[in-house]
Amino acid sequence: MAGILAWFWNERFWLPHNVTWADLKNTEEATFPQAEDLYLAFPLAFFIFMVRLVFERFIAKPCALGLNIQANGPQKAQPNAILEKVFTAITKHPDEKRLEGLSKQLDWDVRNIQRWFRQRRNQEKPSTLTRFCESMWRFTFYLYVFTYGVRFLKKTPWLWNTKQCWYNYPYQPLTPDLHYYYILELSFYWSLMFSQFTDIKRKDFVIMFLHHLATISLITFSYVNNMARVGTLVMCLHDAADALLEAAKMANYAKFQKLCDLMFVMFAIVFITTRLGIFPLWVLNTTLFESWEIVGPYPSWWVFNLLLLLIQVLNCFWSYLIIKIACKAISKGKVSKDDRSDIESSSDEEDSVLPAKNPHNPTTNTNGTSGTSGTNGYLTGGPCAEEH
């Protein structure tokens, strides 16, 4: 074990040439980041998760009820023993051959069987009230941490001159404000990493898991080798748009469509500006080029920059989705599917379901029209549209 730890904490990997861990030990004159400081993030992550539960129960839920957001979930599928057995024991996504077999067995239209499976899948999804509470918690935290980051950074010299991130590196003292900022961010992302498995499942689950993993790795790397100054720039910049997205979601759940559209436009502008403009031109420029000139590369420098580039790849992917949603909104006047929707999406063909061919159709009413609304459960009218 001692050999493994010695290999892992090899000074030639983590630190610049001619710098040792002994050089970065705390003294009466200066305090430096210590790897053991990061252990504090685990109990704090649990504490943040408990605060979230209290917040959602006693603050977010009353707000949601005040906005007439009820705990009703998606429309429930009509009870059917045969389809339920297929759903629970065989597949939740039947292929065309199985759909045709079920259609003959039940004498139902294939599209109505498809709708039944879609409704049955959505039946397991959380209610609008649950989603509102989750978004309100995230909005509150993102707003707080971004505000704190801005107030902290505006007093620092490296906000105005990024070369200050590397002067006298790595002998830059750790201030209490910087330590608090780092541990708070790390604790929050650890809480997200764990709660992601119990939170609302989204289509980009794997991408978000990769993002949380890369973020935790970046925060850990930059703290251990004292790249904390540039780390604060990265964190604050990436927090800038998050609160706006959660605000747009809350407006959508409350059915304030114009406010939702406005918040989404603001989110899109801030997201693309900060992550495709400022981040590569300002942050990546200093981590790749200014640090090369002032400090020079070393092994963990390469890893740190590779992680930043991975984050930038994810930024490009999400920017593509945002632009795609915006283009749909412009061309159609509405968005038929949010590519980061909480709820499973369906095809456009299913939005215009034909009447069933026999009275056994579970969704046909007495007038012979589809029992599903014309929007097939979509909240239309703007870029915040989501399927329910």
UniProtKB/TrEMBL annotation:
Region (Disordered): 338-388
Topology relative to the membrane: Multi-pass membrane protein
PROSITE patterns (UniProt xref): HOMEOBOX_2, TLC
Pathway(s) of this molecule: Lipid metabolism; sphingolipid metabolism; Sphingolipid metabolism
UniProt keyword Translocase present: no
A cellular component annotation (GO) from this entry: endoplasmic reticulum membrane
Subcellular location: Endoplasmic reticulum membrane; Nucleus
Transmembrane segments: 38-55, 180-198, 205-224, 260-282, 302-323
Enzymatic reactions: sphinganine + octadecanoyl-CoA = N-(octadecanoyl)-sphinganine + CoA + H(+)
Span of domain TLC: 130-331
One example of a Gene Ontology biological process annotation: ceramide biosynthetic process
Database matches in SUPFAM superfamilies: Homeodomain-like (SSF46689)
DNA-binding region (UniProt annotation): 85-128
Low complexity compositional bias, start-end: 363-382
Keywords: DNA-binding, Endoplasmic reticulum, Homeobox, Lipid biosynthesis, Lipid metabolism, Membrane, Nucleus, Transferase, Transmembrane, Transmembrane helix
Homeobox domain residues: 83-127
A Pfam entry, by short name: Homeodomain
Any GO molecular function: sphingosine N-acyltransferase activity
Domain of life: Eukaryota
InterPro entries named in the record: HD, Homeodomain-like_sf, Lag1/Lac1-like, TLC-dom
Predominant location: endoplasmic reticulum
Protein name per UniProt: Ceramide synthase 6 isoform X2
Native species: Phascolarctos cinereus (Koala)
Name of the encoding gene: CERS6
